[in-house]
Specification:
There is one protein chain. By secondary structure, this protein is α/β, with parallel strands linked by helices. It is built from eleven helices and 13 strands. Strands 3-2-1-4-5-6-11 form a seven-stranded parallel β-sheet, with helices on both faces. The chain has a two-stranded parallel sheet with strand order 7-10. The chain has a two-stranded parallel ribbon with strand order 8-13. Helix 7 crosses helix 9, helix 7 crosses helix 11 and helix 9 packs across helix 11. The longest helix has 21 residues. It is globular.
Length: 328
């Protein structure tokens, strides 16, 4: 049995991780501030089952608070050190970060440092698994993104904050011996995905018969990665043997055209999209493409869910949630 802390613990990826860990018999502490970046009620739905199930009374605890707040961190760490801390809490989103860069750096960089300061006294026991982002790679040519590539030209404050986190955590590892794995996620999707992200947003608009705005000519590409494959990658990162600091891409390594993403949604919804093309937006990159050879080698990572299959799972969940919201 492991003791695991998940920051951003009521979010999309975190809820899938929590399901997995509780099923394995682990003890999970989640910390989340339930901010209004998107509807907090959706995050509360993500954790409702864990809180309501008597079987999890001793294995699941939710702390409502911010990672920048000392009292919230006191409560999260009150049961003693953790075997693994999975750090998912962050202000997310490229475009919103352009409007509030100082806030993004405060949460993502200062918040991370305050969390790390709590972990370091038990650096010999705790492993930190950090959620980085493919956005650190910036604008690129046509090649796959490798962990050894330079990431010195981020094109949004969000991307810059994630690149800063990687440097920050390397410095911490070097100074204290804390073991840190930085996982660069590539466009994670699936059931419970945030409503501001493209697949969820487009699904809702197509379902409602409303116009879908596409930025660019539809030829941008994203390396969409199904959440179940991300969960498996995180699990492996919690236990594999490594020197003490590592950066690993978690993607599918099969970029999908924006128009093909729309077509997959149309197929699973059984509805046509009303497309409106708009100019590319500041901060957006033309494509993402993960080289996952390092993940395959050290984690045994092998994404198993195709993009279209994952979209089908998402649409099934969307319909169930839609039916629930209409009757509740």
């Amino acid at each position: 049995m492991r003791r695991i802390l998940i920051t951003g613990g009521a979010g999309f990826i975190a809820s899938h991780l929590t399901e997995r860990f509780l099923a394995l018999g682990d003890k999970v502490v989640a910390i989340d501030n339930f901010n209004d970046f998107y509807n907090p009620a959706l995050k509360r739905l993500n954790v409702k089952a864990f809180l309501a199930d008597p079987a999890h009374q001793d294995s699941y605890r939710l702390v409502e608070g911010d990672i920048r707040d000392a009292h919230a961190l006191d409560e999260a760490f009150s049961g003693g050190p953790f075997d693994v801390v999975i750090h998912l809490a962050a202000m997310a989103g490229v475009r919103p970060s352009l409007e509030s860069p100082a806030y993004y750096f405060d949460v993502n960089v200062n918040g991370t440092q305050r969390l790390v300061d709590r972990i370091v006294p038990n650096a010999d026991r705790t492993r930190l698994v950090f959620a980085s982002s493919s956005s650190v790679y910036g604008e690129r040519g046509g090649e796959a993104f490798k962990e050894t590539d330079r990431v010195t030209e981020p094109i949004s404050p969000y991307a810059a904050s994630k690149a800063a986190n990687e440097l920050q955590l390397y410095a911490c590892h070097h100074a204290t011996g804390l073991k840190v794995v930085c996982l660069r996620f590539f466009t994670v999707f699936g059931p419970r995905q945030r409503p501001d992200l493209a697949i969820h947003k487009f699904c809702h608009l197509i379902d409602q018969g409303k116009p879908v705005e596409l930025f660019g000519d539809g030829s941008t590409r994203r390396d969409y990665t199904y959440v179940g494959d991300i969960v498996k990658g995180i699990e492996s990162a919690m236990t594999y043997d490594f020197a003490g600091y590592d950066i690993i891409n978690l993607g599918r390594s099969e970029p999908v055209l924006l128009l093909d993403m729309v077509r997959s949604l149309e197929k699973h919804l059984g509805k046509k999209a009303d497309l409106v093309f708009k100019p590319m937006q500041v901060g957006d990159v033309p494509y993402t493409y993960a080289d996952i050879s390092h993940a395959r080698e050290v984690l045994g990572y092998s994404p198993a869910t195709s993009f279209d299959e994952g979209v089908g799972h998402f649409v099934d969940w969307y319909r169930k949630q839609k039916a629930f919201s209409l009757t509740s």
